[in-house]
Amino acid sequence: MKVLVFGGSGQVGQELCQQLTEHGIVFKAPSHKALDIADDKQVAELIARYQPTMVVNAVGYRDLVKAESEPSKCFAINRDAAASMAAICSKHNITLIHLSSYLVFDGAKTEPYTEKDTANPQGVLAGSLWQGEQLIRERCSRHIILRLGWVVSARRYNLVNTILSQLKQNQEVWVASDRLGNPTPAVDVAAVIIAILYQLDCEAEVFGTYHYGGVEPVAESKFAEVLLNDAMQYDELPSEKLLVKECNQLDYLPSHLNARLSVNKIRDTFGIHAKAWRPAIAKIVKGFYV
Ligand SMILES: NC(=O)c1ccc[n+]([C@@H]2O[C@H](COP(=O)([O-])OP(=O)(O)OC[C@H]3O[C@@H](n4cnc5c(N)ncnc54)[C@H](OP(=O)(O)O)[C@@H]3O)[C@@H](O)[C@H]2O)c1
Prior knowledge:
With 290 residues, this protein is α/β, with parallel strands linked by helices. 42% of the residues lie in helices and 17% in strands. The chain has helices at 11-22, 40-50, 64-67, 71-91, 123-139, 159-168, 186-201, 220-231, 264-270, 278-289, and strands spanning 2-6, 26-28, 54-57, 95-101, 143-148, 150-152, 173-176, 180-181, 183-185, 208-212, 218-219, 242-245, 258-259.
């Protein structure tokens, strides 16, 4: 197999490139600087030249708040570029693995979301992700759409870095007691993608939409406490500055109460069992400091 990765410098992308190397899988991962996926001509040219058997799209516009004021940029990446990548892959009979998010759901359900639940995206970012998914389904039958929970790693922008950086700067950090989700280490997402790549390479007919998130779901406030406890061995953080409210009292929008994803379909189809997130979090916190 030969894999082309877009978004190789991201949280998931970096872990994926490392694991592809460890597995001896031939791949190419052009940087954002070398190739903007919004430029569909460049994407088409590269795919035609490199002739991968699989393409992984780990690119994402991810800023929930900024997306509200720059919707065209957000839609250009999460919807239009993904849709055109799907059409190019279909033309060359290539399988596209595309990363999406729990955000396609409105968060109002009280149970974990399954792949059969109806999407109801709230806000620009969520809408762009959902419309991107829909166009991929229309344009490329050989697709895997992998929806993820709260992706975390020691790098880049995520819940771990946000909470620890603010505490480190002695700032107040407000977290929600009623916002639930699955912390999902990027390293585990990469391992899931590798497992999927191997099955696709064996011509398994497994195309479709799947959910992945770390075991077990947790409230944002409890997750923050775990981080704080782990971080205390490296730094004296001001624990009194970690403050808890209910979601509707916090001012970031749109508020999303339930990011929990059911992982039964990915288990039943690929034999992929979701991993516990706690052991990886200890390493991620260490990575934040060391
Ligand atoms: N993080 C989460 O909590 C979360 C949750 C659910 C789903 N997801 C989805 O999972 C995927 C990966 O997330 P992540 O957290 O790994 O993202 P990330 O760390 O923000 O990385 C995004 C990657 O996309 C690249 N990129 C951005 N715009 C680009 C463009 N126009 N052309 C080419 N490359 C571009 C970035 O390159 P530069 O850094 O060089 O700009 C970076 O490599 C995304 O689709 C995201 O929506 C994430």
